[in-house]
Specification:
By secondary structure, the chain is an alpha/beta fold. It has 10 helices and 11 strands. The protein binds guanine (GUN). Guanine binds next to strand 4 and helix 6.
Length: 295
Amino acid sequence: MTARIINGTKIAKQIREELKAEIAELKEKYNLIPGLATILVGDDPASHIYVGQKQKTSLALGIYSERHDLPAETSEEELLALIDQLNKDKNIHGILVQLPVPSHISEARVIYAINPRKDVDGLHPMNVGKLTIGEPDFLPSTPYGIQQLLIRSGINIEGAEVVIIGRSNLVGKPIANILLQNKEGANAIVTVCHTRVRDIAAHTRRADILIVAAGTPKAITADMVKEGVVVIDVGTNQIGTTKSGKAILCGDVDFDSVKEKAAAITPVPGGVGPMTIAMLMMNTVKAAKLSARLI
Ligand code: GUN
């Protein structure tokens, strides 16, 4: 079997088009313009690129967006004061602090400071708790994007053996909770693997759907999966540079060998990556509707 490629670029574009139409309607019917503020502290080049992409997508969809780029030496108090100001700003419905923040700032205190109703990253403990009890407001963007990739590719999640590699707060734990919900597009049997699992392959070979956020290039090889598996690769690893200076990327899955056994697989790049920003935009629109009591 050679796998069907799950095209995240195409699915993300479809979601952006749906959102663009919805945003135009919100403006016309209710004079409501969703607003997103991004905060970036320091000069990490990758974070700069991500924030730039979030800003660009917001503008293209008709979302009002504000970019707050702060120097690396910004104090925690200054950052918390900005968050407080944005919490009170009626034009801002979503606040995103790009992670990681510099080490002299507590990531937890920053996340706790964001008004949970503006927490479009879904990382505030209130939103983590609401997801856990099955009443989510905001799902974290990357796992939300993974669920959408599966649903929109027609993959049956209900009753499926889902095996997740990685237990991070950004991906592993929330995707486990999302797919465990008693809802359409969920109801999976979920196993979460991590660095202390003794025999990873014993678990991955059972998977109907394998979600890999291991942080190691090509960690999953063909001998570790069963025939007909659906593979979602969350990894983005730079393994070299082309002559023209472009990054050569690969995922956490050995794509070339695994695609020969899988029923469907996401590529890197062009799989999960494009979905993250699309889902952030969806959360921002939801935050605006919540604030206007439209939902
Ligand atoms: N850095 C890497 N992923 C994310 C994310 O989903 N949200 C934020 N705020 N920062 C990140």
